[in-house]
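Researcher: Next sequence.
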Amino acid sequence: MAFVAVRVLSLFLLSTAAVATVTGVARNPACESPAIGAPVFPLDRDLLQFALNLEHTECDFFLFGALGRGLDSVAPELAMGGPPPIGARKANLDATTRLIVEEFGYQEVGHLRAIKSTVGGFPRPQLDLSAHNFANIMDNALGCHLNPPFDPYADTLNYLLASYVIPYMGLVAYVGANPNTNGFVAKRLLAGLLAVEAGQDAIIRAILYQRKHELVAPYNITVAEFTDRISELRNRLAMCGVRDEGLLVPRELGAEARLSTNILSANEDSLGYQRTPAEVLRVVYGTGSEHVPGGFLPKGGGGKIARAFLASP
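Model: Next structure:
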């Protein structure tokens, strides 16, 4: 028993020393979880860099929505010379929502810094955050041409519905990446990113949930119907069954098949859904194909995974 105890202690001290070596920051072993193995595996790097496509999209959408300026103003070094986003602008938000969105934007700056400082990165890809792009998404979701076209920046409710479109894709991408991430530094980074992405999505859904029966002017369509149709669109584009749910669902899809209200999107065991990089690209491109760019990434995503899909038919 004494030998086992000494062995466990030795592994713990070695693992915490490894963390300190990787991060370059002195650590207190009493405050660190044991970590054994390589800090970052090659696939870890590719998966985390893939996430930069989503983090960049969220970052500029939230910063512009709250401040009227984006990453080039707040942390230009993280854009790495990538082109400015198309069509992003300040939204007409109420005071409370503006503060929430501003915080989200700064959180995304931190995410970009954390990923790029840990596994490297690439210049911000070309983003399309224009009202026209969001209008196309809503038209596709609802199966009709909204008149006037949907404008995400017009008011608080429209912006929240547009926000419903984006962070959830980061959430399911991180859940999907988790089983394939092996390095202890990579896994810790992924867990931290997932926690905040899930929190952002939950806050957006909670606010919309409170307004679920409200009609979105001037369309005579409820908030809940917007969310349901957006989720259905993402499921259709991803082509892998139901991995996305709106605020109201058939009872059999509710928590323990007991509710039709659905404040969080989760599977039959109330676990978060997961998506592969290919599924994510089909949705974010809006084309239903990981090989055909469009939507939020009109020139395609960056990083090894996204570029490989673009290079193959």
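Model: The radius of gyration is 21 Å. The CA atoms of residues 45 and 119 lie 5 Å apart.
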